[in-house]
Fold this sequence. Notes:
Elements: E1 3-8, H1 13-23, E2 28-34, H2 35-38, E3 49-52, H3 59-67, E4 72-75, H4 88-108, E5 112-115, H5 134-145, E6 148-151, H6 154-166, E7 174-177, E8 187-191, E9 198-203, H7 213-220, E10 228-233, H8 241-247, E11 252-254, H9 262-271, E12 274-276, H10 293-300, E13 304-307, E14 320-323, H11 326-337, E15 342-346, H12 352-362
Parallel strand pairs: 1-2, 1-4, 2-3, 4-5, 5-6, 6-7, 9-10, 9-12, 10-11, 12-13, 13-14
Antiparallel strand pairs: 8-15
Helix pairs in contact: 3-4, 4-5, 7-11
Amino acid sequence: MKSLLICEYDTHEKNVNEYYKLLKKGFRCKILTTKKIANNLHNIKKSDLIIYQGPKIFSYIFLIIKAINFNYIYIPSALEYPYNPKSILAKIYFLINFLFFITFLLFFRNRTIIKIVSIYSFFHIKNFNINNSFFSKLRFLILIIGKKFLMETSELTNNLKKYFHKKNILKNKLFTFMYIAHVYKINKINKINKINKINFGVLGAIDSTRKNYQYLLNAIKKINIKKINIYFLGENIKNISNKVIKKFIKYKIYYPKSYLKDDVFNKWGSKCNILLSLNRNDLYYGSLKGTGSYGDAIFLQKPLVAPYFFDKKKEFKDFIIYYKNYSEFKKIINKIINKKISYKTCFNNNYYKNHLSRISNDLELN
């Protein structure tokens, strides 16, 4: 069995758990990460953890040293954030990190799998101002040097290929996708008509610039508040989230004080009858940027109400109830609250064996 190193210094520990859960089925897996993330990883043997505790600016030098002993290295976060560092110190920090990362890629190009979260972080896209920066042009070098690329969905993967093709760098590149949560085969029948109180789980960081909370407020404003509990299943961002929370104050709501820890996410999420995605359409979710909503729903094995633009190819139709506008969203919410809906959700398309064999074949990991 070949060896694979998951190197993750920045992202959610829940994601790392899911990557490990899948990839250990086909590889001898170890995780290189920080002490902070490692403390929140569950069901992973200590012998499978490599902890980096030095200055973050030298973390990719440490990766170069450790990567020598592995057949493959998976990088879920390829210096995508911040998109455009503002301060002089942040810019210098990014440039040093970038230099070390490029050095790593030059040594391990054929062995490295790079996950791309946001296509617009690397390409100049018309009417999208964020990628007119010097730093987006730098990130483009990662795509030129890298060989194996991975996205969250097949639609995002196909869109990434199109942008590669436009830049004439498609030759000798390998692409595939990997859903975050990989459950065993399961079907669930959700009978709302047997529930006395509806627990809604609102996914994602509490941020009105990214989500349209007015949809939910308008849809429930005439509903008896005793019929509803609302769980905010995302980070409470300082000076941003409080404005949103205050609008829901008359309802029974649950929200984190800051970062939402995995154990709290699991506890609150398990109580929800249905999950809600309120993402706005102006941030290119689904076509140029991934979303954690799919993985959250699969992980919690809960049905998800989500905007149609998220998933135009309906990859996740087995557990998503789609809405195209507020009118459709309101009808869905009313049916749920009035207990006029009963449906079946299926997660079989996310069965791990199907994805592991495809990932291995598409990225030539055999």
